[in-house]
Amino acid sequence: MRQADIIIVGAGPAGLSAAVEAGRLGAQVVVVDENAKPGGQLFKQIHKFFGSREHLAGIRGFDIGQELLAQAQPCAQIKLNSTVYAIYPDKQVALIADGVHQETIRAKKVILAAGASENVLAFPGSTLPGVMSAGAVQTMMNVYQVLPAEEILMIGSGNVGLIVSYQIVQAGGKVNALLEAAPRIGGYGVHAAKISRAGIPILTRHTVQKVLGEEHVEGAIVVQLDDNVQPVPGSERMIACGAIAIAVGLTPLTELAHLAGCQLTFISRLGGMLPVHDDNMETTVPGIYAAGDLTGVEEASSAMEEGRLAGIAAAEALGYIDAGAAAKRKAQVWERLHMLRSGDFGSYRRQMKEEVIEKGRIFHAI
Amino acid sequence: MRVKEHPILSSLDRIPVVEIIVDGIAVPAREGESIAAALMALGRLKLRHTHKTSSPRGVFCGIGRCTDCVMTVDGQTNVRTCVTPVRAGMIVETQNKPDKGE
């Protein structure tokens, strides 16, 4: 059986960042990803990142992806088209490709960075072709340069809904309306202002009542919602559209963490169930780390920082860096993470993450 | 529907076009794109019918998890078209067509 110092599951921003840190410190790293291309969802992000210079603000997501990939390639073996289907005791990680078992690799440390998947919203007609996750629309138009329809209805006013709406306009499509069930816009004001300037009506307290069409989306009946989130009678109206994009949050992909026996906890505002971890991103199973959206849905910038933490910590545990030097590096990462988790939108994330980490600390103390 | 102009992305014009066979008809696709993207570029959103009720389905998640976009590819059923790249000469067929057996 092949051996590796560290197996990282997921070649997105968290996984690649972990690989860069651990690999540069001398660990022998294998990154496994089920997709044909590395980078996770970075390559469909054509917008400039937010935050400070340290967080690569002002650089577009796909350029960050290219840079990260260039850094990671000399640091690790990146194994694509390979799905991890089991993690056995003693950190034996089993891989499958095209439905056939490939190999089992025994690792000293495992870093789980599987990411998250988009939430579904159910309403009459929600299974019709043309009803898609906002992320799928984003992949189609920004990676393959294809629009599902000329006119699109967006549901959800978080940052994904706002940014993807703007990108639909950039791709030459039209967003006929953006619906938000809550009384307020969920995402950053600066994004909302941008799409308002682009002429997209943002309808708060609105939702889809049903989709029109037999074979594919041809329109939707939208309805206003009252204070109890109930439809206001008589407020129904038709909005023509050929596709409906759904941006109503993401859920961490915890299957492997669960399979490996990691203790999970439920934090609604971070996306639901997620693995408990400590300051080193180590889960409740010694030697198994987790990073990125899997440990709570945030942004690519924080996923990269968490990946770095996990990479440094795993390399430290293997003796590739002494405790003093590792502590210094980790402190720098934490400083940047705290900056990302500050302000109106970030401080609650810091609070929630601290709850998770407190649980992890208690677990490791026992 | 292909994106005609884009302020940030460079044009796909230089990417070679390959031909794939979809339900018996040869259609163009850009090398490297997913089967679902190639079909969406042709305006096709409906990719399959459900087994029991023949309801139409298309791409939902786009990352290979929901399996709503599956089609038969080169004789292999249930291939996730959103994560499977096209290949010249690939034979793609709709599963559970309602007119099957007629």
Please provide a brief summary of the model.
Chain A is of the alpha/beta class.
Supply the number of structural domains of chain A: 2
Annotation, overall tally of beta strands of chain A: 19
The fourth-level CATH homologous superfamily of the largest domain in chain A is FAD/NAD(P)-binding domain
CATH architecture descriptor name of the largest domain in chain A: 3-Layer(bba) Sandwich
Number of helices of chain B: 1
CATH architecture name of chain B: Roll
What is the CATH H-level superfamily of chain B?
Answer: 2Fe-2S iron-sulphur cluster binding domain, sarcosine oxidase, alpha subunit, N-terminal domain
> Which word captures the global form of chain A?
globular
CATH topology of the largest domain in chain A, which one? FAD/NAD(P)-binding domain
Quaternary structure: heterodimer
Sheet of most strands of chain B: 5 strands, mixed
Secondary structure tally, helices of chain A: 9
Please give the radius of gyration of chain A in angstroms: 21 Å
Beta fraction of chain A = 25-35%
CATH class of the largest domain in chain A: Alpha Beta
Instruction: Give the uncertain stretches of chain A in residue-range form.
Output: none
The SSE order of chain A reads: EHEHEEEEEEHEHEHEEEEEEHEEEHHH
Mean pLDDT of chain A: 94
Percentage beta strand of chain B: 25-35%
Backbone shape of chain B: globular
Query: Which fold name corresponds to the CATH topology of chain B?
Result: Ubiquitin-like (UB roll)
Domain FAD/NAD(P)-binding (chain A): 5-307
Pfam family, one (chain A): Pyr_redox_2
Protein name (chain A): Pyridine nucleotide-disulfide oxidoreductase
Keywords (chain A): Oxidoreductase
Structure characterization notes:
- The complex is a heterodimer of chains A (366) and B (102).
- Chain A has 366 residues and is α/β, with parallel strands linked by helices.
- Chain A folds into two domains: 232 residues, FAD/NAD(P)-binding domain (3-Layer(bba) Sandwich), CATH 3.50.50; 127 residues, FAD/NAD(P)-binding domain (3-Layer(bba) Sandwich), CATH 3.50.50.
- Chain A is 32% helix and 27% strand.
- In chain A, the strands form five sheets. In chain A, strands 1, 2, 3, 4, 5, 6 and 19 form a seven-stranded mixed beta sheet that branches.
- The longest helix of chain A is centred in the last third of the chain and has 23 residues.
- The relative contact order of chain A is 0.15.
- Chain B is mostly beta strands.
- Chain B has one domain: 2Fe-2S iron-sulphur cluster binding domain, sarcosine oxidase, alpha subunit, N-terminal domain (Ubiquitin-like (UB roll), Roll), CATH 3.10.20.440.
- Chain B is built from one helix and seven strands; from the N terminus they run ββαβββββ.
- Chain B has a five-stranded mixed beta sheet with strand order 2-1-7-5-6, with helices on one face. In chain B, strands 3-4 form a two-stranded antiparallel sheet.
- Classes of the chains: A alpha/beta (366), B mainly beta (102).
- Chains A and B meet through strand 8 and helix 3 of A and helix 1 and strand 4 of B.
- Chain A: GO terms for molecular function: oxidoreductase activity.
- Chain A: This is Pyridine nucleotide-disulfide oxidoreductase.
